[in-house]
Amino acid sequence: xxxxxxxxxxxxxxxxxxxxxxxxxxxxxxxxxxxxxxxxxxxxxxxxxxxxxxxxxxxxxxxxxxxxxxxxxxxxxxxxxxxxxxxxxxxxxxxxxxxxxxxxxxxxxxxxxxxxxxxxxxxxxxxxxxxxxxxxxxxxxxxxxxxxxxxxxxxxxxxxxxxxxxxxxxxxxxxxxxxxxxxxxxxxxxxxxxxxxx
Length: 198
Prior knowledge:
Pfam families: TetR_C_33, TetR_N. The protein is mainly α. The chain contains 10 helices and no strands.
């Protein structure tokens, strides 16, 4: 292996070490505890070394946001059967979204901490654009099936994000578990109500 290849491999290993350490800090202490100093101390390198790979804490957070949307898109698309009706696929979409939030709560928290993705986010993160396209195509298909001409796709698109996030917030992000209802029933009811409204 040449000098250049070795250097690139070492840089990739260091970047991975920073990401793995960041992931561990977040899982143990939460996003608020993540700092460049804490990462540097944990991997026993100086702070300037971390800055060679990530310009600031926000850049590390952005990495996890992008990774999260990649995982979310994969989770949703893996659960959708193209042979099923649009209504069934819509239920599958909702279930994939919910399962992602349940299985990856720390990713979900950083991904949606500031609201639903914007157009700018969709431009910068490929999987956000793919997810947005998937949502819009499924809404379009529901509208075509209903034959209605009075439905605004953009409003329905934002309503879908709001509904999915609302179910997750009520069921997974609540402070106590004492008032939880069967998650699958709330999710299924919400998705049915959405499709019937088109």
